[in-house]
Amino acid sequence: MRHFEHLSDEVRHQLFLHPPGAFDQYSERELLATALGATLYIPATKAALAPTVRRQAAAGVRSMVLDLEDAIPDGSTESALSSTVETVRDLAADPPPALVFVRVRAPEQVGWLADQLGADLAAVSGFVLPKFSALRGVEYLDAVGQAAAHCPSPLYAMPVLETREVLYRETREAELLGIRGLLEAHRDRILSVRIGATDLCGLFGIRRDRDLSIYDVGVASELISHVVNLFGRADGTGFAITGPVWEYFADHERLLRPQLRYSPFEERSAAGLRTELLRGAVDGLIREAILDRANGLTGKSVIHPRHVAPITAFAVVSHEEFSDAQDVLRPESAGGGVTKSGYGDKMNEAKPHRNWAHRTLLRAEVFGVAAEGVSFVDLLTAHVQARPAAADAR
Prior knowledge:
- Strand 3 (63-67), helix 4 (77-93) and strand 4 (99-103) form a beta-alpha-beta unit.
- The chain has helices at residues 9-15, 29-35, 49-58, 77-93, 107-117, 136-148, 164-167, 169-185, 197-202, 218-231, 263-267, 271-279, 282-294, 308-315, 319-328, 354-367, 376-386; strands spanning 16-18, 38-43, 63-67, 99-103, 126-129, 156-161, 193-195, 241-246, 300-302, 338-340, 347-349, 369-370.
- By secondary structure, the protein is α/β, with parallel strands linked by helices.
- 45% of the residues lie in helices and 12% in strands.
- Helix 2 (29-35) crosses helix 16 (354-367), helix 5 packs parallel to helix 6 and helix 14 crosses helix 17.
């Protein structure tokens, strides 16, 4: 599977200097974590679940989660489990070009699903583990390990940090250190660490407005910083950390200015696209994605198909980023030093920018490198135009 595979060969040739590369669940773990991009959560109670997964995959979604937890009512658990089994069996018979995960409610659901699915569990790339803690995480990871022992393909775990123990200051340090130790012991099993910002904000009765980002919510922003500090290090001890969900997708009355400049869209004759993005509150999503990357996060959880295209387009490495990364990693720069960027607008420092350059080239491998002069607006326009209208239905 590849990102932007739903575009025509001609359009991809126009957009990319280096097109996105192929990946699957057998790919190297760090590459696969980067390739997740926008991970779409779908309630497991949704009617026609397997056709929905295939429709979204055909429209360019490359990672999805069948959600058995917060997305469904408590009384629907049994029917949702049955639907998940039927859906995974259907997908195993005719696999879509997407990674499919299951978010369970409890550790025992991992084993139950593995028993029910047998060899068809190979259609699942892993499990999302909610309310992950240093104590409960042992049960979760043991359950995934036992399921993986009978699975013919790699089976990953994606723990979600969203409990009061990780948020409350008096318990945070010990809890996060406990979780880090647990994840280190199961490093080869951990694909990414996810942050459940909605649950975390709920502990304080907070809900961020459409005009704000999660980084404007002090308690959440403080936790993200702490999580990145402990889990996101680039020295070989870190993990990929995924940006939290953006929960808005419809128009609303604005108190603050829109967060997308007009000129980049006007220059590309895409003013209509900007209007559509504003109507869907997607400008807030784009701003938050920019802040996610600035704070060391990779990819994003999404709950609406409309959110996939902006995150995917934003993940493409620009021609300028690629040029800078190559400059930093040139053999003659191994000893350090400073050079002027090939674009003549910044200084590239070989040693401090080396980890950034490695991560940039990893992203380029799965999302591609934009051709010179191709902008985010061009990539987003092509992605949106290629998506069938039916794919934007929730």
